[in-house]
Amino acid sequence: MANPLLKLVKYRVLLEMIVVLGIGGSGQFGFQYSVLNSLSPLIKNFINETWVGQYHSTISYNTLTFIWSSIVSLPALAAIIGSTAAGYLSRKYGKKRSLLWGNLFLVGASMIMGFSKIAGSFQMLLIGRFIVGIYSGLALTLNWQYVGEIAPKKLREYTNTTMYLFYSSGAIPGLFLSLSGILGTESSWPILVSIGGGTALVQLVRIPFYPESPPYLLLEKGDKDACIEAMRQLWGDDDFQEEIDDLMKEQEAMKNVQTLTFLELLRDRSCRLQLYLMVLVILTDSIGGVNSIYFYSYDIFLRAGIAPQQIPRFTMWIAVCDCVATFVCGWLIKRCGMKSLLLTGYGLMVITLTLLTVALSMKEWYHWMPLCSVVLVFMFMCVHGIGPGSVTISITVANFTQASRPQALVITSVLTFGGLFVIGMIFPYMVESLGQYCFLVFVAIIAISGAIIYFYQPETTGLSTMEITEQFYEMNFQGSKEALLSGAQAEQHEPRYCSIF
What we know:
The protein is mainly alpha-helical. The chain has helices spanning 2-10, 12-24, 26-34, 40-55, 61-114, 116-119, 122-150, 156-177, 189-194, 198-206, 214-220, 224-235, 241-253, 262-267, 272-287, 290-304, 311-336, 338-361, 369-386, 388-399, 405-434, 439-456, 465-476, 481-491. The chain is globular and about 65 Å long.
């Protein structure tokens, strides 16, 4: 017992920092994207009532569907703004100050949404959700960068999976509080949509006492003493000479290289394959069916034949299963590797979605088919949490160096939120036109993505940033490092931006 307790004490600041960042970053993101799920009938009724009061006419079904879809998905569109700003702000002001200022957006958005019912304005919900989106894009991008850089190499795979753990954990209180017996009532739902602002207070109180990430201090600021002090604060008196050596190698490689801008990253040949794979895994995770179930589980379960009063509880247990699955991923990731978990998850997701399509098609044939649909939804979320849900961001962070990582994660956020916006807007119409067969579209997306990753993504577990980058370097330039350098001397040709050799 002593050894685990000593480890907890030694990494106390690191663990606390991960929790605080997770609550305000991916946890807040999960809360905001789950809290409206069970409130669908209440908010649609609110929209209808305020429409009649403002325009003295009954709202049409198509207009109501469009407004509701916009309330659900507008944060994803707004988050692109926050994500785009995150790269610039983190370089200029650091992650700490950027997160602290970003919390003011969340406080303002919570107040606007909380007073929307009193004001009789569904437009205030749209405005509040838009501001929440800006905060989510900023906080989530900085959360990804921060958590990916503050842990020692031996713990990095575990800490990176916490980003998805907090996302699924953040969904649980949103779904629980939205139950009809708690805050999911006609009079209480405005309190629920504004309660997320409480996480802003947690970050405002604690973040000033945390250090910037060691890679940022050494590679961006050139302050080795501050880097070592940050390591000591985060990791105790551990032997972190190996991490310092890795960072010094990266600093030496980056000596004549500045942090890449967005356009430089797109033009840099040595980062090309990493970018392609990043686009592939992020879009697969965003539009591969998971968010459709999170956004519209109420409608999915209703179509499966579940009684409306039972649906919120089923939806809450989806998030619980997703959270538990993420813990399992943390245990498996060292044993199996990130690439293996990702591909296994994709394969099982294809199987469960195909079976879900069959079950929904046969729901009128057997009285127990709705139960099969519910079980398959739970299975789908579990295999996603064990594999792609936890690994997608981790493997993206691992694929890039400090020079390219900030802009890569900005692109990651833009793709994530862009995919969320698209799926949030079109999924109701997909269900209307394709019915249960809409899930076959997701099957095709996941299968194609898995095949490409199998051939081109190297295993990253247990490797340093420089070792991973060297593997990509050889694939990007279709040859070994030595062959490339000999060719470069003959042709006087070198990669322009973030070559590490």
